[in-house]
Write the structure tokens for this entry.
Amino acid sequence: MGSGEGANRAKGISFKTLGLIFGSAVLGSAATLLFLRVAEGRVETFSTASLLGFVFMLVLTTVAIVLSLTAISLSRSTERALLGKGAVAVSPSRLPEAKPETVARERPATPVKSCSSPAPAPALLSTEARERAEKKYSQFKDIVLLGAANYPGVVSRKIGEGRYLTEGDELVDGSFEMKSDRVAVCTFCTGEEIGVRFMGPRGDRFPGFLRSLANELKTGHFTRVFLVFDRTLDSASPYAKALADLGKRIDADTFEKFERFEGPPNIIIPELTERVSQLMSAPPA
């Protein structure tokens, strides 16, 4: 490796060289002028003003020469620096390629999408389907709750939205007094679009909710629970499985207080109306 001084000399013209150029230019110009004057046969005398003007002209000439040489030197230095950077940039590009298994460990593979790949329309359609399902379920819930609330003599304690992991009336969508019964009404959507809202991502929310309702029945806060589903449940339904499992965990008397209503509003509303009528006409306990 070369020293720092040698590297500086390679990059440009030193100040010593510039001084020599300046001095040579001054002496050469003065000698040339005197030679021309003597050759003409005249004895030259210099006034102070002319001498200063002559020196000033020589200084300007020398400065112009020095600036030109400096510009040339800087241009060459810049060219060498750019060439050096280009060599460094080319060098890494020629590094040996990693083996396929090494690349796979360092960076996960990204699937390549072809031009014929469909646009992400399914995601948009899924969002629209979910919004339609939410609207349909909201209408279904309102029909059920208002159908119970509008029956003559029924006292509404709550009409709204139930929440898991709560207790009392906050746990259910509707809470009603039907003569001597305190009835909780809970509505559910069984469609896949928003079913996870009720079952939970691991299917553990609905079973826990049923256990909470069983506790409310045992404490006497409710005497009956109406579970209203917007479709008929088959044996493979997670709701049906959770109810069957609950029946094995609690006593038969408590489990009998869970009453299921399944189907669209045109089927459920007449059944609910008939059941409410029975409770309202029953003699006091």
